[in-house]
Design goal:
The protein is an alpha+beta fold. It is built from 19 helices and 17 strands. The longest helix has 24 residues. It binds a DNA duplex (9 and 11 nucleotides) through helix 2, strand 4, strand 14, strand 16 and strand 17.
DNA sequence: CGGTTTTCT
DNA sequence: GGAGAAAACCG
């Protein structure tokens, strides 16, 4: 491989092996051919409002929360508008700025949020609702999933050869407007399709043999932004397979972004690289509406341009500590510090992690997680509130808010339910209290309110209660449920068969508002709203319907004596059983190690005593939540 | 279980 | 800088 021969020389081999190629199938976190993408919606809340209002892209717009700005679109940025300034200053800088206040809940109106003309004058009675953005986020996520599922679907030849492989991309929702995607399996499939020479010799004996070299001398990077190569690397060198996989990844990401634009009118930016850290940094490089590719040969050059404090996890205390210890914030300078020296000033795994991370190494996996792990509803009081009475009013709103979100999440259908409810309470100092949510019976607004009230009493009883400057309620420790017998069967069937089933027994998505099922709303034309406003106001309410089980919401019934009010006992047990099986299923697949900079990562799995009966779910060493067969 | 840190809009 | 939110970590 050291000869200066022509690229098509059949004697020349790649520096990559079949083993590394195979790594793509299972989502190995160490193969140099891995490709991870990070996709980030541009100024997300601002775009949501632009879409909702039909505001053209070149009109400056900002999203307002009381007197502050929480999102600024790209048209407004040249005016010098940023998050730090207030509304008056923003108007001064840009008189034509469209200022849209976030939707709010209002005291006495239960769980119904609305966009109101006067919300910014009602900070004392209103509470911010981010529901509209969550709803958009769900739609975008679904669109991305669909795009990934259909990418290259016209050719199933390779799948036929590998009936056991799923070969689909893993998508992790990282926040309301960001996803990570491990494109490796999809790219593996494409590679075998496009380069039949890679198919041969996959017998186990040959795993460490080198691959043939790619049959190309130049790659067409389309509209991608390429990060410059490292010193001593040159564009004249023929591309390696690690370049080819990036190109394919880039093609996939472009099609995903295009789907989001065509179907929903949102632009996003993306980064592609060999791991999550690189991808994440990359996506922020060229905004808005562009994608950045960091090839392996460009990684060090790329990182050298950064302060390490901009790398995930190094933005806070840890970053400061490192800066202080080594007298620099620059990646390029920290690079000269040998590992042993890092060890003298930092905890052991922190040092190891840091050493790798500034060299572009990150083996954290993309978790197949698209669902939220906790829900919180909060309010800061200025001025502070001073009575139990006032606090209870907010609890009503919090309970309604969270209940509405639980409904979206599928509590009614028993798909998921939280096990714990927590209250945070701030006076001079802050306190919190949590209690279990009873595992039997339906969760409704009143139950949440009653539990919250119990917590409030506790918290008020055990310290200086007033004045209170901040109050919040959250639910967490979600447990997966199953909505019907079909789904449980789905659990019991393993491997290949489960896959076949998984597509057919898809239980309605609560992702979309019931109103817009076959949303064939394409062709947004910069102005004029093509029914977007309607679709935006999808759900809401679940307000004073504490009595009814709104039968209408269960269209496409889940064939089983619908139990809207709790799971019958025996069934509940079945459900735990199915859960454990699913757990086992997942374990066999992976040998994962997140490798994060922790002080002492003695991963809990603390088999909590928990005297009660409900907590029976025996040791489940799951980190990212498990995926239901139908999800 | 309760507090803290980090990240994001 | 503040408000609201979510996740992960720590002891």
């Amino acid at each position: 491989m050291s000869e200066p021969t022509e690229s098509s020389d059949p004697l020349k081999v790649s520096r990559f092996t079949y083993r590394q190629l195979q790594g793509l199938r299972q989502g190995s976190t160490t193969t140099p051919l891995r490709v991870v993408a990070h996709i980030d919606l541009d100024a997300f809340y601002a775009q949501c409002e632009m879409v909702r209002l039909g505001t053209p892209r070149d009109i400056p717009l900002a999203v307002r929360q009381w007197d502050s700005l929480i999102a600024i679109n790209y048209a407004a940025r040249p005016f010098g508008i940023n998050r730090l300034i207030n509304v008056a200053e923003a108007r001064k800088l840009c008189p034509d700025l469209v200022l849209q206040h976030v939707a709010t809940f209002r005291e006495g109106e239960g769980g119904r949020w609305a966009y109101r003309e006067d919300s910014f004058r009602n900070i004392s009675t209103d509470k911010v609702s981010l529901d509209p953005y969550r709803a958009q986020s769900r739609k975008i996520l679904q669109t991305m999933k669909d795009a990934l599922a259909t990418w290259g679907a016209n050719n199933t030849e390779v799948e036929a050869q590998n009936p056991k492989q799923e070969l689909s991309a893993v998508l992790e929702k990282a926040s309301i407007d960001e996803v990570f995607i491990d494109l490796s399996p999809l790219i593996y499939r494409a590679l075998l399709q496009r380069y039949p020479e890679l198919r041969i010799a996959t017998q186990d004996e040959n795993r460490d043999a080198e691959l043939p070299i790619p049959p190309t001398t130049a790659l067409q990077w389309d509209t991608d932004c390429l990060v410059d190569l490292d010193q001593h690397e040159t564009e004249e060198d023929d591309p390696g397979w690690d370049d080819v996989v990036m190109l394919i990844g880039s093609e996939i990401v472009r099609s995903v972004r295009n789907a989001v634009w065509e179907k929903l009118s949102y632009t996003c930016s993306a980064g592609l690289g060999r791991n999550k850290m690189i991808a994440k940094l990359g996506s922020a490089c060229n905004k808005p509406n562009l994608q950045t590719v960091v090839r392996n040969r460009a990684v060090q050059n790329f990182l050298n341009g950064y302060k390490f404090t901009q790398i995930r996890m190094l933005g806070g205390k840890l970053g400061d500590q490192i800066t202080a210890a080594f007298g620099t914030e620059k990646v390029s300078e920290l690079l000269h510090v040998p590992l042993e020296q890092l060890r003298t000033r930092l905890a052991d795994h922190t040092a190891t992690w840091l050493y790798g991370i500034i060299r572009g190494e990150d083996r954290s996996e993309v978790n197949p997680r698209t669902q939220i792990k906790s829900m919180l509803s909060a309010k800061s009081f200025r001025p502070s509130i001073n009575s139990l009475d006032q606090a209870e009013k907010w609890l009503r709103i919090f309970a309604a808010d969270i209940y509405g979100r639980l409904v979206e999440d599928g509590v009614l259908e028993n798909r998921r339910r939280p096990k714990v409810i927590t209250m945070h309470y701030r006076t001079a100092q802050s306190r919190s209290r949590q209690i279990p949510i009873p595992g039997s019976g339906a969760i409704d607004e009143n139950l949440l309110y009653d539990l919250a009230n119990t917590l409030l009493r506790q918290v008020v009883a055990d310290g200086q209660a007033w004045p209170c400057s901040n109050l919040s309620l959250s639910v967490s420790s979600f447990e997966d449920g199953v909505s019907n017998n079909k789904a449980i069967e789905g659990f019991l069937i393993r491997g290949d068969q489960a896959k076949a089933l998984s597509h057919s027994s898809r239980p309605r998505d609560a992702d979309n508002s019931p109103s817009e099922q076959a949303s064939t709303e394409k062709r947004r034309k910069l102005d004029g709203d093509g029914g977007k406003i309607k679709s935006f106001f999808g759900n809401q309410s679940h307000l004073e319907d504490t009595s009814a089980d709104e039968p209408g919401s269960l269209q496409e019934p889940v064939e089983m004596d619908a139990e809207l009010d709790g799971i019958p006992r025996e069934e509940h047990d079945d459900w735990h059983f199915a859960k454990d099986l699913a757990s086992q299923d997942r374990e066999e697949a992976k040998g994962s190690q997140p490798s994060l900079p922790t002080k002492s990562s003695a991963r809990g799995t603390t088999a909590r005593g928990r005297g009660g009966r409900g907590g029976g779910s025996r040791g489940k060493p799951e980190k990212g939540q498990m995926r239901l067969a139908f999800q």
